[in-house]
Amino acid sequence: MPTRRLSIVLAEDSLLLREGLASILDRAGHEVRDSVGDGDTLLAVVRKEPPDLVITDVRMPPGHSDEGLRAAAAIRAEFPTIGIVVLSQYVADAYLSSLLESTTGGIGYLLKDRVGHVAEFLESLDRVASGGTVVDPEVVRQLLSRRRNDGPLAALTPRELEVLGLMAEGRVNGAIAQQLVVSEAAVRKHVGNIFAKLQLDDGLDRRVSAVLTYLRG
Amino acid sequence: MTGWQALASPRFLVSSWPWRAYLYLFTSVPVGLVTICVLIGLAATSAVLSPIVIGILLLPVFPLTGVVIGRAERWRAGLMLLDGIKSPHAVTPVSLTLREKLKFRRREQASMRELGYGFLLGLLVWPFSAAVAGISATALGITLVSPILADTEEVGMGPWTLDTVGEGLLFAVTFGPVFYVVSSYLVGVLAAAEASLAKAMLGPRQEELQRNVAELRRSRLDLVDAFETERARIERHLHDGVQQRLVGLTMTLGLAELDLPEGEGRRLVVKAHSEAEAALADLREAVRGIHPRVLIDLGLEAAIREVADRSPLPTSVSVTLDSRLPPPIEAAAYFVASEALSNVAKHAQARTCQVWGRREGDMLVLSVTDDGVGGATVGAGSGLTGLVTRLDALGGTLVVDSPPGGPTRLRMECPCRLGD
Fold first, then answer.
1. How far apart are CA A93 and CA A67, in angstroms?
2. What pTM was computed for the model?
3. Where does a domain end: A115, A147, A179?
4. Whole-angstrom distance between the N-terminal and C-terminal Cα of chain B?
5. Where is the domain boundary, A86, A112, A147?
6. pLDDT of residue A202 exceeding 70
7. How far does the CA of residue A196 sit from the closest CA of chain B (Å)?
8. Which of A48, A96, B357, B383 has the smallest number of CB atoms closer than 10 Å to its CB?
9. Are residues A33 and A84 both part of a single domain?
10. Which residue in chain A is spatially nearest to B302 when comparing CA positions?
């Protein structure tokens, strides 16, 4: 269960999902301060009293295109400390670029299906609220498949590719070790190899965006 | 077959054509009379009523009379032109009200031509037809019955006087065939000429034919457009309805999992959860095949990239377009790329594949190239056949160059604007 009680603003135009999300967050002990149905109201509510975290749908009225993303960008510009989780009905890594531009953390991009895996979802919220980056595994899979025939990525061993994927999802070494059932030292070794092979800087605070930027080419 | 062709045929005299010609000429009499009466009546009425605005209001009726005359006369001309005469009028859109349709017809040039033909028919054509056909029919008739006439009284025939049955018979046998031949050709030529006149004035002009072709393309385009709108509606319905409910279901099941103790009940809920997720994944796949959301939101480039990412084959994408294209064109290009990539993965035994797309002038050019075994065709049960039809309606083309042994190169070209 959560490490701290977060105050959250929820933006989702489907009443059904809004209530589902609210009840999940409620049960986890978070405070759902406001739930709204469109991007403009979201901005207004956040400006009135900034929450710890904003969870927003990509598509909302009136245009049903990318209102949520635009609201997220506006919030990020005005309140860099508010964590933002963007939920999407389907994944498109093209959306990712607009989210990751000019930001180093405190951002999450998840498929709506993930919400059903309640424990994982809540953990993702905590990570984003504390400045981490969370990217849906599906998006990472797409990114990896795009670059797989490129030179440097082809040089990675299958295990290193797995580690790279988990890194891109925003997981820390401990979580990766747990997931792959290996020691944290082994993960550190893999990470070192990956960064050497891809010629990336391993600054721990920026590594997610470094990896994602690399993958997006 | 036309009257002229019939006249040129050696079998003209023993065919039905002379009689058709007579019928055509004689039927012009009632039609011509009615036409001229109506036209003069109308003209007189509007002249009389012109001091009180109604008369002027009647003027628009003239071209509409032309439409009716044209219709009747095209039908009658079927006697001499077996293929008939095509209507020169444009098809009026179904959505127009009756009033708008009449206005539309009234303003057509063809209606005025038909009115002109009406005057010609009423003033010149029918009297002339009646005279020629009447005289030749009478001459022929009298010649044939001359034996009977000569039996009762003396009949003067030019230089001869027939006063017995024998003489009458001799005259009929000698001159009957001659008269038949002469009058048949005379009447045939006149009828054929009149039918040609009708065709020239009541048929479609070159530009009207071209307009019909344009209309046909327009309506095909409308169909493609309607198809596209319908797909978007279905996609939206699935996306906003069914998909949301399934997501809601996975949330509820996720919550239930938290509450349930280890055991059979929990195992079943976990199973239900993963089944709901599978349904969601299937639905997402189906929606992608109907009308991909990425295409609507982000355009062709991003959508093709997505398809390429899902392809089991390493696929490089280089699609650069400076602006969005009309939805039917984007959709056609997207489905061409998607279908081509799935064909490559299924049949080509290729190692790599490239998708390339640019705007070249007013054309969108998209090519999909692989290094596989070749031998691909557009037909042969590939999903591309339907896409060719779709492209055709947009004025586009799809060419597959695939020699045995490869490589296969598929090239799509499509105008970037609708209705050109």
1. 17
2. 0.63
3. A147
4. 36
5. A147
6. no
7. 24
8. A48
9. yes
10. A94
